[in-house]
Design brief:
The protein has 884 residues and is of the alpha+beta class. It has 28 helices and 31 strands. Strands 5-4-8-2-1-11-14-13 form an 8-stranded mixed sheet. It has a 5-stranded mixed sheet with strand order 16-17-18-20-19. It binds ligand BES and zinc ion (ZN).
Length: 884
């Protein structure tokens, strides 16, 4: 018997086949006591769950995983029952207790379970994290990561987001250790055995995936700038780097309380830096956990990107305190309500606190681009995707839930106006506080606030896979629009092209933006005031691509220089042209022409898009003849080098973030593509650094300088590798270590590639960081081949290190395969996995294969076109003939 949840409107029942607990019992309150043991790496636990019997039955099922149940009893109507059987079903991770009498409907009862769990090293459930203390000794802390379905590893429970309960947590630990949980401390007692027992106040009703507790040697810094105490905890000595995140947290909580009109309901906010952490951060209510580098900030050693990432992560997790924690999705197909919203909200607040960063401009080349990229694959999925099994849930923490989710929120917020949008959000949060929602609840609140029918405009966007490309044809002032599904592989079948999206066209003309055109038929015709200038998708506010005629595209390229187009528009034109070349709607030579016309561009964001477009051609041509690859490299260098020379690579006091980013980008693209001046400068910095001057390289340039040295050093960076390896071993903090680790793989020297890959699997690199060295190695062709061989050789070990239940394995699969560009290579990849269980990463694999297929058909289509362009522009000699 399975719980089926109603309310999913539309024709398909997304709840069908969903693995959920039987609905005969409802949890009300949990009382848990846990004692981690740092010698045997396990923990003793007791949980007493107050439940209500909602349907008469003899059975109670709870979720549990890798937990040994020692003793179970049920107190009901003054009696104590023990189960006659206790059966564990590994497949669905549940434990079913059967009693010999029927539990009457309506009765309240308490189910008490004593158990032992594993304090594992897999970064899931209640797990151990290790670090070296000041004396170089290995120390452990115990911490948790429950989302999405690992609370069941820490405590037998009803592990579903809709089954909210209150929690009273007690931790037993050595006296000198710090104990933390979601709530503040209620009582601390010394025990006879020399330990202490720390009890925390009862939580408000909350979902299991938000439960958290930590035991370890931790120090903190605190701020009183918010109405409640905010603390940042870290291992001793590292709490000194807490100032930036404390400050931003205080400002953000204050801002969100005002924007949401609902106070943060818990008595404190703790944020903790954890040495081993699978994601970037986790929004546990009142006790947010982070990767060290995503929380602690050292202004002396950190790059501007690092600073922005910390700001983003902190604001994202704080947004979840409302969106996710206070109001929670009913089930995981509503994940986007959590992640899409937290993403949108973090941009909204970054924009408030750091107007100079112009984050909404950057949004187009960041979130919008990654949404359109993944969603252009056949193997993408709708935002609201049915997830039935545990192994499916982890896989939807992807660019669809985060980036497409936030992109459609950005779209609707612009359509309604930000103020109206926030007003609707406020009403939604008030109405559903401590409850669970479905997507329709959000649309209802926005409809109420705006007086517009938001649901009918938005439902298609969350329920259907993909997005449209609008083909524009012109007849004087009459502009004809036609929408079709966009696929990167350019092979849309009629049955895949049935969706008609309600498109907020956003027509930009010299008169301004017409926001009112919503187009939901296959074709339509609009009128423009003059044919000199118009652009669709003003500021790239909507989720679609635009296909213009070559003449119009050329005109738009010219308008880019005359101030008629915003940064978002300029980046958007480039992004669309890139995607349309990939999929054969346009010629790649037209893209190259367009890009070449942007030489006078001044915006960092547009330059980032330009370099991304050329890099994407280069990555499709990764296995093309050397001459062609060198030619593309030279083109990319020629685009960027003048800017690098003009701006220089000194960072001055007064440089704002965007200036720093532009200098960094120009230096990096020019240098890595062979500009002699930049290379010389980088080699100079590297030499000083190698001689012991740790500050010889500016933090913004550190990675690039390592990369240039490894790429252009003698014998492909043979010796330079040791210097960067030392930078990894002796980095002053995790950020410095990571940068070195990420760039080590840039050396194409075969011995160095081997050493880098061996390092990834050695005990010197934490499992959480395995992907870092891989990302460097896959940056070139030699490495891309090496990494696939390495992956196959070490497959068993990788599976052991990164269990399929975590999302990291999927990323590694994708990193090790998606660089290929031919059908043969794709076949080799699928052959390898043919007889393997791809549970937990089947989506990543399918997406990788789609990505390869898209590149293969792109090259087949435009190989000659690109060759000709390179000849016409003197990047290839006229007589060049590719060898077969
Ligand atoms: N809820 C997630 C953490 C998470 C991710 C849990 C995957 C389980 C599986 C958290 O809010 C999050 O999204 N973190 C991001 C940071 C953010 C700035 C996008 C992360 O971990 O990178
Ligand atoms: Zn999140």
């Amino acid at each position: 018997m399975c719980r089926t949840m109603d309310g999913a409107s539309g024709s398909v029942d997304i709840t069908q086949g969903r693995e959920v607990l039987p609905s005969n019992v409802k949890p009300l309150h949990y009382d848990i006591e846990l004692e981690p043991n740092f010698k045997d790496f396990n923990f003793n636990g007791t949980v007493a769950i107050d439940i209500e019997i909602t349907e008469a039955s003899k059975e109670i099922s709870v979720n549990s995983l890798e937990i040994e149940v020692k003793e179970t009893k049920l107190e009901i109507n003054g009696k104590t029952l023990t189960p006659t059987s206790s059966i564990y079903d590994e497949d669905i991770q549940t434990n079913k207790f059967t009693f010999d009498e029927t539990l009457p409907e309506g009765a309240k009862a308490t189910l008490t379970i004593k158990f032992v769990g594993i304090l594992n090293d897999k970064m899931a459930g209640f797990y151990r994290s290790s670090y070296k203390d000041a004396n170089g000794e290995t120390k452990y802390m115990a911490t948790t990561q429950m989302e999405p379905t690992d609370a069941r590893r820490a405590v037998p429970c009803f592990d579903q987001p809709n089954l909210k309960s209150t929690w009273s947590v007690t931790l037993i630990a050595d006296k000198e250790l710090t104990c933390l949980s979601n709530m503040d401390v209620k009582e601390e007692k010394d025990l006879d055995n020399g330990k202490k027992s720390v009890s925390f106040n009862k939580t408000p009703p909350m979902s299991t995936y938000l439960l958290a507790f930590i035991v370890g040697d931790l120090k903190y810094k605190e701020t009183n700038a918010f109405r409640l105490p905010i603390r940042v905890y870290a291992t001793p000595g590292n709490e000194q780097y807490a100032d930036f995140s404390l400050d931003i947290a205080a400002r953000t909580l204050t801002f969100y309380e005002k924007e949401f009109g609902v106070d943060y309901p818990l008595p404190k906010m703790d944020m903790v830096a954890i040495p081993d952490f699978s994601a970037g951060a986790m929004e546990n209510w009142g006790l947010i956990t982070y990767r060290i580098v995503d929380l602690l900030y050292d202004p002396k050693t950190a790059s501007v990107d690092r600073k922005q990432r910390i700001a983003e992560v902190v604001q994202h997790e704080l947004a979840h305190q409302w969106f996710g924690n206070l109001v929670t999705m009913d089930f995981w197909e509503g994940l986007w309500l959590n992640e899409g919203f937290a993403t949108w909200m973090s941009w909204y607040s970054m924009n408030e606190f750091y107007p100079n960063w112009k984050v909404w401009e950057n949004y187009v080349v960041d979130n919008l681009a990654s949404a359109l990229n993944l969603d252009g694959l056949r193997s993408s999925h709708p935002i609201e995707v049915p997830v039935k099994r545990v192994a499916e849930i982890n896989q939807i923490f992807d660019s669809i839930s985060y980036a497409k989710g936030s992109s459609i929120l950005r779209m609707v917020s612009k359509y309604l106006g930000e103020e109206v949008f926030i007003k609707g959000v406020r009403a939604y949060l008030k109405k559903h506080a401590y409850g669970n929602t479905q997507t329709t609840d959000l649309w209802a609140a926005l409809s109420e606030a705006s007086g517009k029918d938001v649901e009918s405009a938005m439902a298609t966007w969350t329920k259907k896979i993909g997005y449209p490309v609008i083909t524009v044809t012109e007849d004087g002032k009459k502009v004809h629009l036609k929408q079709n599904r966009y696929l990167k592989t350019a092979d849309v079948k009629p049955e895949e092209d049935e969706t008609l999206w309600p498109i907020f066209v956003g027509l930009k003309t010299k008169d301004g933006v017409d926001e009112d055109i919503v187009f939901e038929t296959r074709e339509t015709t609009i009128e423009v005031p003059d044919t000199d200038f118009f652009k669709l998708n003003a500021d790239q506010s909507a989720v679609y691509r635009t296909l213009y005629s070559p003449e119009r595209l050329k005109k738009l390229g010219e308008s880019a220089k005359t101030g008629l187009l915003s940064v978002e528009d300029r980046a958007g034109i480039l992004g669309d042209a890139g995607a349309l070349a990939t999929s054969g709607y346009q010629k790649t030579s037209a893209l190259l022409d367009l890009v070449a016309g942007f030489k006078e561009e001044e915006s960092y964001v547009v330059w980032a898009e330009i370099s991304a477009r050329v890099s994407s051609i280069k990555s499709a041509w990764l296995f093309a003849p050397q001459e062609e690859r060198d030619a593309l490299k030279q083109f990319q260098c020629d685009l960027m080098a003048p800017l690098a020379h003009k701006l220089g690579w000194e960072f001055k006091e007064g440089d704002d973030e965007l200036t720093q980013q532009l200098k960094t980008l120009a230096f990096s693209i020019a240098g890595l593509n062979g500009d002699p001046k930049v290379i010389e400068a980088a080699m100079g910095m590297f030499k000083k650094f190698a001689a012991g001057d740790l500050d010889a390289i500016h933090p913004n340039l550190r990675g690039t300088v390592y990369g240039i040295a490894l790429q252009y050093g003698e014998n492909q960076g043979e010796k330079e590798w040791d210097v960067v390896y030392n930078a990894f071993k002796n980095g002053r903090n995790n950020d410095e270590k990571n940068v070195a680790l990420r760039w080590l793989g840039r050396s194409k020297n075969p011995e160095n590639i081997k050493k880098t890959l061996a390092l990834a699997l050695s005990s010197e690199v934490k499992d959480q960081d395995i992907y870092q060295p891989i990302s460097g190695v896959r940056s070139h062709r030699e490495g891309s081949e090496a990494i696939w061989a390495w992956f196959q050789e070490n497959y068993e070990l990788l599976i052991k290190k990164l269990p399929p239940g975590l999302s990291m394995l999927g990323s590694v699969v994708s990193m090790c395969t998606s660089n290929f560009t031919s059908d043969e290579q794709a076949r080799e990849v699928s052959d390898f996995f043919k007889n393997k269980d791809t549970k937990g990463f089947d989506r990543a694999l399918a997406q990788s294969l789609d990505t390869i297929a898209a590149k293969a058909s792109w090259i087949a289509r435009d190989k000659k076109d690109v060759e000709k362009w390179l000849k016409d522009n003197e990047y290839l000699p006229k007589e060049y003939q590719p060898k077969l």
